[in-house]
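Here is an idea for our session: we take a single protein and study its fold together. To get us started, please write out a protein record for me. Start from the sequence, derive the backbone structure tokens from it, and show both lines together. Go ahead whenever you are ready, and we will take it from there:
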Amino acid sequence: MLIAQEKKKENLAEYILYMWQVEDFIRACKFDMNCIEKQRVNPFDVSGDLKKQIYDWYENLLIMMQKEKIQKKGHLQILKNNVDELTELHFALLHKKHDPQYRQLFTSAAQTLLEMRQNSKADDETSDIEIALTTLYGVLLLRLSGKGVSKETMQGIHPLSRLLAYLSKAYKEVEEELSKK
């Protein structure tokens, strides 16, 4: 909960990737709050009230995942909405705002995105931003599981990382502007 709150404020792409990890962790615990409490809640050295908030946060996610019937795979609707928000900003930067720096980052990432789209057999409905996030998440999982990631793979995903970092920064700026109004 604490990490998620901080990531959401600072970098929406990192937040989404973190929350996908949380979803997978809940699945790994087989939706058992005792497992979650033991591995994720109890290790926090915080007050009892904050520990209860963390417990409740995980429990609410667990319940939402069950209600949305994503116990085996898939993502919470709220996270899908976050991906859609980044996708909308992606299109705005490319087509409405004509951001040359973003356009250059997207051009650098285009070949990798095309390859990942083909490799994943993603349909036309899947946005480039979702493909970028899914690719980075796949690499993250490989690294977390101790499996090696080739130098070529790391070089290939670098443009995706840069694209998402820029997009997240732009998203944060838009959110800050909106909060001033």
